[in-house]
Amino acid sequence: MAKPWQTIDKSDNEDNVLELRKRGDRDFLLLVNGRVLMNSSASRSEVTLGEHACRLVADRPKPRVLIGGLGMGFTLRAALDALPRSAQIVVAELNPVIVEWCRGPLGDLTQCAVNDPRVAVETDDVAAVIISATRKGAPRYDAIVIDLYVGPGADSDEHFDPYYGSHALQTTAHALTPGGIFAIWGENPDAAFEKRLVAAGFTFERLRPGRGGLRHVVYIALKKSMK
Fold first, then answer.
1. Per DSSP, what are the bridge partners of residue 141?
2. Distance separating alpha carbons of residues 115 and 102, to the nearest angstrom
């Protein structure tokens, strides 16, 4: 009989309730407002996201990567494993408690990836961090990886969704270096989002990691414009 899940920490703020649950030695759940954000035993799409995006820029001098959303740190761990020691990774995470958990009870899952010297954590919305990279004189990113608990879908506003709308995608393109990579996690493929990606100047590959069970989608998009 499987052991019951136990809540080991909880954080309430004005926007949501975050909860960390544990079962046994290495099974963890992250929940937001009662909805499962991540299960430590189902991380293949997050690993694929970080690995594929960063492998494509790993041979650049001092590659610079932005990851939006820390989760349990699996995407970050995969990115670090694919990148050289000269790389810099900025992680944009809105909730400081997530960072604390990744340094604490979740740390062993990723060899405490968040403490790697290549990593800088910004407590901010990744959309704001992307916008800041488009300002005059600001350094751009070789790869931008979006790993949020809500991916692109039918509920995404076509123009004004802060991550997946047409305006946001154009901003992301400007925040990338020539030939930069934009990688996105989603629950399911979304044809409308794919059209917006192309309109914003990207070509893309759609991946469905693994076989059987719950298979999420990973988009690996290449910026075509050399501007």
1. 176
2. 9
